[in-house]
Design goal:
The complex is a heterodimer of chains A (77) and B (150). By secondary structure, chain A is mainly alpha-helical. Helix content of chain A is 57%, strand content 8%. In chain A, helix 2 packs across helix 3. Chain B is 81% helix and 0% strand. Chain B is flat. In chain B, helix 1 packs antiparallel against helix 2. Chain B is mostly helical. The longest helix of chain B is centred in the middle third of the chain and has 38 residues. Classes of the chains: A mainly alpha (77), B mainly alpha (150). Chains A and B meet through helix 3 of A and helix 1 and helix 3 of B.
């Protein structure tokens, strides 16, 4: 599991149940990659992340959220 | 099981490798006492390579007819790169083992009456075995990463 979570499932649902295949074709990746991203098993490149956000017409952070600690907290550990 | 085009392609390559080289190395084991990598050994090796190519071509044609071919995307390329890394480690380990076998055989020959015979036949096939194992490691790694994530 990655520390980047996403709302792709909900965003697809809001866009009249866009299928994973449709999203994959619009983004230019395979359906398996969309499944892996949606299941938090793969963190896409920035370019693919931006393309996904553009398909839904929302900012990047409306699609992806990073739940790790910031670097200053890590340095203090 | 819902498999992508790339996964099906990898499964085909893996099965072809295991089938052909399994048969090849079974024949090698039967002739392990042979000193030189002679014409018969070379013939078997060439036959194995041709068999792999033929099986792969036929399988890829059938696969392309049955499911829509998909170009590799960034995840496919990343998984392949990680799999090549594991394959490289497997091959490097094998190379060190072969070097070890040659050195050990030399030391044993000089130091003791025990005869460890490292023939060209054995060496060629050991190197080949580790090349095949490295490829198998690469293919299995790809399948694992596709299924499990990374």
């Amino acid at each position: 599991m990655t520390r980047i979570h996403n709302n792709i499932r909900r965003l697809r649902f809001d866009r009249s149940e866009m299928t994973q295949q449709e999203l994959a074709e619009k983004v230019g990746v395979t359906r398996q990659t969309v499944i892996a991203i949606e299941g938090d098993k793969y963190s896409p490149s920035l370019e693919v992340a931006f393309r996904i956000a553009r398909v839904f017409g929302v900012p990047l952070e409306a699609v992806f959220q990073y739940e790790g600690t910031d670097s200053s907290e890590q340095a203090a550990d | 099981m819902d498999m992508s085009y790339q996964e099906k392609s990898i499964v085909g390559s893996l099965l072809a490798m295991l089938l052909v080289y399994g048969y090849y190395f079974a024949a090698v084991l039967r002739n392990v006492g042979q000193p030189e990598f002679a014409a018969s050994g070379l013939g078997r090796l060439i036959l194995a390579v041709i068999a792999i190519i033929v099986i792969q071509v036929v399988y890829q044609i059938v696969l392309a007819l049955e499911s829509k071919p998909e170009p590799k995307d960034e995840r496919d390329i990343l998984i392949e790169a990680k799999a090549y890394r594991n394959g490289y480690f497997a091959f490097a380990t094998g190379a060190f083992l072969v070097i070890g076998v040659v050195i050990a055989a030399g030391l044993a020959r000089d130091a003791t009456p025990t005869r460890i015979i490292v023939t060209p036949f054995l060496l060629v096939n050991l190197v080949l075995l580790f090349m095949v194992l490295a490829e198998v490691v690469k293919l299995v790694t790809q399948l694992l990463y596709y299924r499990r994530g990374f």
